[in-house]
Amino acid sequence: MADIANAPGSAAEPSTTTGSNLTGQDSISNSTRLVDDDTVDHEHEEELNDDELFEELENDDYGTASFREQRIEELREEIARKKLIIGSDHGSYKEIINEKEVMDITTKTKHCVVHFYHSDFRRCMIVDSHLEELSKKHIKTRFIKIKVENASFLVEKLQVKILPCVISFTDGIAVDRLIGFEELGNTDNFSISLLELRYKTVGVIEDDSKKDTRKLERRSIFGCDYGSDGGTDDE
C-alpha cells in the first residue's frame, strides 16, 4: 500500500465507509457529462441486422427445439452485447481526466468500478492490468480510472488516502471499497479470479454461473421443464 499524502492533489482522511454517493445526496443531476467523441469510431460502426442473425437458425438443423431455443438466446445475448459496446465505452478500461465526468458516470451507470491511482505507484499499475481484463469480460459494468491529482474534490469527499483505492458503485451508491492489497492476500501476485469473485459477491459484475444454473433448472436436456405436472405414463 502507498500513502497519497505526498502525492499532489490529495488532502483527505482515511475512511472505510460505503453506502454514499459522490455528493452525499441521493443523486447528482446537475453534474456535467464530458464525453470524448473521438473515442467512438462512427465511420466503422457495424449495422446490426437481427433478421440476418436469426436467419441462421432457419438454415441450420439443430435436431431438437431445445437446441434451437438455446441458439436463439445466445444470438440475442450477442446482439445485446454488440449494441452495448457500439457507441459507448463499455467493454474498455478508460481513463477519465475530469472528476465531474466520473460523478456523471457513477450516477448514470448501473454498475461502475472506479480506480483512484497515482502513476508513480507500482501497485496501481498491477490493479490497472486486472481491471482492464475484467472490463473486456464484464461489459455491462463500467471500469474507469482517474489520477488522484485530477480528482481533488472526490479524494476529499470519498476520503481516499491509501493507494491503490478502488471504489465500486451501484446506482451511484458506493457498495465496496478496496484499499491496497491487504484483502487480496497482501501480495502483488493475487489472481484476477480473486478480484472477480469479490465483485461478483458485492454485485457489481454479473455472476454467469448463477445465470447458467437457472437455465438448467428450467429445462431438461430434451427441452422439457423440470417439475412439470405431466410426469410419465406408467401402463
From TrEMBL:
Polar residues: compositionally biased ranges: 13-33
Family matches, as InterPro entries: Thioredoxin-like_sf
Residue segments, region Disordered: 1-48
CDD domains noted in UniProt: Phd_like_TxnDC9
Compositional bias (Acidic residues): 37-48
Name the record gives this protein: Thioredoxin-like protein
Source organism of this protein record: Modicella reniformis
